[in-house]
Each structure stands twice: as structure tokens, then as C-alpha cells.
């Protein structure tokens, strides 16, 4: 994974999926954590962002997604355990296979990342900020018509 500590900062490259259905967006979090994110993970060296999205869904949920166009490039500055982080996030439009149990919006869905348990759920796009989705600027961007690649800078 592309994640390195430099000059007291953690720098990482992340790729994630924007999966939308009927004005709902699929989000996920590590169980027991308050922060939700769009599903994805850190890019491995030599891997494209789209390949990362497909790999992460396979590893975490055992599902093959179709990863499409790049929607957002997010420069995200935040702290984790008082350590400053600088993350470049690549957010792609993606779709689940027809008939996937993950399309059920009435319940949450379990996933795994290594030995960590994950929770996936659908949230109406108007409620993303209240649900705790980060980066926060994505909540607003996802409520707008998606046209072309958008560049977002988020400083927490």
C-alpha cells in the first residue's frame, strides 16, 4: 500500500467507490468507529486506482464491482491520533452486480479487512454529513449533479 511517513506527516494514496442507487450512497466504517467513508482502500504500488477499488471489494466483501469513471480527486488533510495526515483520494463511479445482496438498503452488511470487521450501509445522500461521512466536503459534492472530475481540498 502507498502510505509513507514524511516530515512528521503520514502521506497516503487512497481509491474509493461512489456506488449510488435511488439517491442512496453505500458507505462503510470499521466496527466501533464513528467515522464513515466511501468504500475503498490504499493503492498498492503498480496498481491503478480502479484496480484498487475492484481488489478492495473482493477482499472485504467477496464481490466483483465494475469500476468506472473518476469523479473526484480529494486532497484531504486530517489528524489520526494527533498525527497529521495528507491523503490523496481518487473517487470512482462504481456499480454492484445485478442481484447482489449488497443492494438491500434495509440493513447493514458485514465485511472484513484483515482481522478487522467492517460495516457497510446505504445512506440517503441528504443525510451523509449526519451519518458521519468523511471527508465532509464529499457530502455536499455527492448531492450535486455529477459532471466531470471535481477537485476538492478538505482541511479538518
UniProtKB/TrEMBL annotation:
Gene3D superfamilies: Nucleoside Triphosphate Pyrophosphohydrolase
Family indicated by similarity: Belongs to the Nudix hydrolase family.
InterPro entries, alphabetized: Nudix_hydrolase (IPR020476), NUDIX_hydrolase-like_dom_sf (IPR015797), NUDIX_hydrolase_CS (IPR020084), NUDIX_hydrolase_dom (IPR000086)
Keyword Iron-sulfur among UniProt keywords: no
Organism: Pseudoduganella lurida
Pfam family, one: NUDIX
Domain of life: Bacteria
Cofactors named for this entry: Mg(2+)
Keywords: Hydrolase
Gene Ontology MF terms in the entry: hydrolase activity
Limits of the Nudix hydrolase domain: 9-146
Protein name as it appears in the record: 8-oxo-dGTP pyrophosphatase MutT (NUDIX family)
Amino acid at each position: 500500500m502507498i502510505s509513507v511517513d514524511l516530515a512528521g506527516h503520514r502521506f497516503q494514496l487512497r481509491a474509493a467507490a461512489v456506488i449510488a442507487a435511488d439517491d442512496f450512497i453505500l458507505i462503510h466504517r470499521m466496527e466501533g468507529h464513528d467515522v464513515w467513508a466511501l468504500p475503498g482502500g490504499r493503492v498498492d504500488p503498480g496498481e491503478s486506482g480502479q484496480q484498487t477499488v475492484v481488489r478492495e471489494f473482493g477482499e472485504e466483501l467477496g464481490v466483483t464491482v465494475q469500476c468506472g469513471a473518476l469523479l473526484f480527486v480529494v486532497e484531504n488533510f486530517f489528524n489520526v491520533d494527533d498525527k497529521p495526515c495528507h491523503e490523496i483520494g481518487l473517487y470512482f463511479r462504481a456499480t454492484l452486480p445485478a442481484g447482489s445482496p449488497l443492494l438491500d438498503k434495509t440493513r447493514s452488511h458485514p465485511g472484513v479487512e484483515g482481522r478487522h470487521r467492517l460495516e457497510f450501509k446505504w445512506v440517503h445522500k441528504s443525510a451523509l454529513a449526519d451519518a458521519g461521512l468523511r471527508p465532509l466536503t464529499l457530502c455536499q459534492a455527492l448531492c450535486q449533479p455529477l459532471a466531470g472530475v471535481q477537485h476538492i481540498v478538505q482541511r479538518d
